[in-house]
Amino acid sequence: MPFDQNILRARFCYALSEMYKTEVPLYGDLVDLVYEADTTALKAQKSYCKDTCNQPIDPDTILPSRNRVERHGAIRLGIPHELSTIRRMFGIMGMYPVGYYDLSIAGFPMHATAFRPRKREALDKNPFRVFTTLLRMELLTKRTRQLAVRALGQRRIFTERLVELLDLVEERGLLSEEECEEFIKEGLETFRWHSQATVTLEEYQILKNEHPLIADIVSFPNCHINHLTPRTIDIDLVQRLMQDQGMPAKERIEGPPQRKCPILLRQTSFKALEETVYFRDASSGVYVKGSHTARFGEVEQRGYALTRQGRQLYDEILQRVNIESAEAKPSAAQYEEILQRRFLEFPDDLDQLHSQELAYFCYRLGSSSVTNGQQKPKTSTKLSELLKKDILEYEPIIYEDFLPLSAGGIFNSNLGNASQTKQLIQDAGSNLKEFQRALGESVKDEFSLYEQMQRESLEICGKLLEIEIEYE
Ligand code: OOG
Ligand code: NI
């Protein structure tokens, strides 16, 4: 088999999911529940039911495969060298850093990027992505920083063989089938759960008191995957089913409200489990039993990618929702009402999203594109005219990234309340420059990637029609 990054990514994602199901069985239940929800949602969409009403519905055969395989994961790293090595590792699977997420706004001493495929074809083959955070040492108090530097300096989160394979592929540009298998096997070790902490219980407490996430990052011999996330077509149904089946579901779905035209990303999760962990006893060397709460399962429903203007409007509305709900202290249902009402301001109509340039679109030839000689469009034609005449049509581009505020909500629901240093962290601001230095590369701006997809689709249409399309 020739070396194919898309296939390697798909195989790795599958292996990771299988591993996580054995580590966190409730995650396996969640994947089953998503299957059930998607089946029910498809039945409700009558169009699929025309001729096949009496036949069983299988989302795996009806939905595009990228819907069914799609999941994201999240990991938390401690030091720059870990981040630059993970960049090399994900790069082999065609996953590159996109976007910069400043988590200090939510009081977390971390910043992040998402490693993901950048091109449409690669996303269609397998869209697996990993949200990857890096601890910001400069935002820790002195004592905690000393502890963190020591513990993180002693660990090796990549196996020796994995590092050899990274060198090899960078030199030769490919891996043999045997080496691909090794790469998957060795790569999984970086994300595997270890119940033996590398710190003592006292040290763990110090770290945890400063921020539970610091303890999660620093106390273990590697960077266990902290959640995986399948994609669904009906997250409201998933939320109801989770509650009905007694899963420890979050109180509400994060992100925008339910809409006719879904935007960005909506997410929910089951809360992190309390797990047994063994801590080193400094004097006797034996291990003592304790616990740690970090790993969970999440579900996402993806909507349309918004332009900068669209995102700005989204942020403004969300800000108003936050202010109103901070005052009203609403229940989950009341919050939903506030969200719905405030979001009425965001157009929920495809034509408006397009004409107001709030979302990104891909263009393709429409029903009137095959014309006889007389109707052939002029050599240079306005896009709006081509759309009006059905020579071109458009389809929204799906959002492939994350929502830090939503992430903040997920973090918070899993970690109890924050520490005294929260305010200091919030005041610190972002540090993209430092993040990129640690990464060893710059991160790609997500908006420019969507813009590029939109532009390229238009260029293809222009070539097919043999005209110049004026994008006004
Ligand atoms: C990352 C949370 C970000 C999401 O879905 O927004 C994320 C973390 O918990 O480390 O995965
Ligand atoms: Ni997530």
TrEMBL record:
InterPro entries assigned to the protein according to its UniProt record, in alphabetical order: HGLS, YdcJ_bac-like
Keyword Cytoplasm set for record: no
Leading EC class: oxidoreductase
Coiled coil regions in record: none
The keyword Iron belongs to this UniProt entry's keyword annotation: yes
Molecular functions per Gene Ontology: dioxygenase activity
Cofactor or coenzyme needed: Fe(2+)
Alphabetically ordered keywords of this record: Dioxygenase, Iron, Oxidoreductase
Domain of life: Eukaryota
EC numbers, comma separated: 1.13.11.93
Family statement: Belongs to the 2-oxoadipate dioxygenase/decarboxylase family.
Name the UniProt record assigns to this protein: 2-oxoadipate dioxygenase/decarboxylase
Protein species of origin: Aspergillus ruber (strain CBS 135680)
